[in-house]
């Protein structure tokens, strides 16, 4: 099979497309013919040798995928060859076929169309993270005001869309007009440029001086303290990630003065520690996807040979919405 191969730690341009043996599923595993593999920040960290674990060389990056089951391990009975599925794996999805633990694979309805199957390949990590953040960590209530930083990116757009679905007033903050337009397309009530000097003043005007109830921050960096100062009484500041590269040091007196909370969001650990709660969230999200209530924005599709280009676009924060690798695309 064709696969994007990493043979040494480095930058995305070191990746190559090579032929690898077709992997055979062991007990508790399935093999999936990949329809789409999402491009996520941890994929780049894995290639650079900066992730929490380091696979043996050679390996293919890619942790999130959709496709069709092509082989089953001996003890897997709840899936069948030909099932359309979405799933996650530690690595390996930038390939024509991927192995995954059966417990990390979810069957989609048999009538799932090809375009929906492709959308599903960019769905689990971003929408899973954002739904867990808003529902479980922030305990968001209808009518509350949600500020989404980095609202043009994958998790940011998911938070915008889910916030509207959950009855929130959504203020989407993004650095370019194109990203703000994307947030508008997913239902944002207001859009705002967080790179402007008067960012905090704009938020005061939009909230009548009250501040936001929930701030969703996958960006970190210099903007974090300004955003935290814009959280109102009893508000929740969700720490989702650090796309800007810097881990902010936030003054704790701000939390005291506003009776607010700084709340960490680690979806991967939630999946591991609370599998039943995550499974319920996933069922709800996939139901909304199938019904057309949620519609991920895929802004670019790449063949296997375009994996380095896709990762560079992600690292450069040029991407809007999601980027996916589609092995069937030719270049």
TrEMBL record:
PANTHER family to which the protein is assigned, alphabetical: QUINONE OXIDOREDUCTASE-LIKE PROTEIN 2 (PTHR43677:SF4), SHORT-CHAIN DEHYDROGENASE/REDUCTASE (PTHR43677)
Entries under Gene3D superfamilies matching the protein: Medium-chain alcohol dehydrogenases, catalytic domain (3.90.180.10), NAD(P)-binding Rossmann-like Domain (3.40.50.720)
Residue ranges constituting the Enoyl reductase (ER) domain according to the UniProt record: 10-325
Origin: domain of life: Bacteria
Record's protein name: NADPH:quinone oxidoreductase family protein
Recorded coiled-coil stretches: none
SUPFAM superfamilies associated with the record: GroES-like (SSF50129), NAD(P)-binding Rossmann-fold domains (SSF51735)
GO MF annotation list: oxidoreductase activity
């Amino acid at each position: 099979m064709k696969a994007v191969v990493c043979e040494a730690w480095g930058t995305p341009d070191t990746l190559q497309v090579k032929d690898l043996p077709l992997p055979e599923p062991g007990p508790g595993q399935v093999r999936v013919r990949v329809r789409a593999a999402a491009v996520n920040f941890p994929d780049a960290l894995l290639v650079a040798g900066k992730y929490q674990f380091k696979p043996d060389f050679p390996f293919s990056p890619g942790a999130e995928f959709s496709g069709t089951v092509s082989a089953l391990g001996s003890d897997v009975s709840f899936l069948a060859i030909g099932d359309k599925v979405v799933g996650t794996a530690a690595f390996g999805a930038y390939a024509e076929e991927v192995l995954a633990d059966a417990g990390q694979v979810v069957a989609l309805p048999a009538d799932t169309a090809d375009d929906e199957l492709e959308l599903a390949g960019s769905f689990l990590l971003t929408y899973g993270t954002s739904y867990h953040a808003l529902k479980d960590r922030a305990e968001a209530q209808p009518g509350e005001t949600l500020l989404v930083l980095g609202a043009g990116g994958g998790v940011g757009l998911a938070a915008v869309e889910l916030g509207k679905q959950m009855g929130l007033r959504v203020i989407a903050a993004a650095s370019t007009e194109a990203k703000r337009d994307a947030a508008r397309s997913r239902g944002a009530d207001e859009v705002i440029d967080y790179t402007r000097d008067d960012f905090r003043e704009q938020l005061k005007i939009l909230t009548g001086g009250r501040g936001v109830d929930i701030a969703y921050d996958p960006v970190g960096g210099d903007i974090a303290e300004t955003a935290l100062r814009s959280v109102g009484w009893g508000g929740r500041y969700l720490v989702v990630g650090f796309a800007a590269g810097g881990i902010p040091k936030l003054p704790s007196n701000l939390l005291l003065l506003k009776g607010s909370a700084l709340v960490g969001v680690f979806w991967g650990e939630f999946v591991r520690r609370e599998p039943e709660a995550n499974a319920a969230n996933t069922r709800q999200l996939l139901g909304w996807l199938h019904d057309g209530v949620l519609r991920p924005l895929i802004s670019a599709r790449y063949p296997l040979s375009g994996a380095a280009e896709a990762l560079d676009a992600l690292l450069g924060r040029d991407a809007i919405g999601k980027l996916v690798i589609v092995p069937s695309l030719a270049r």
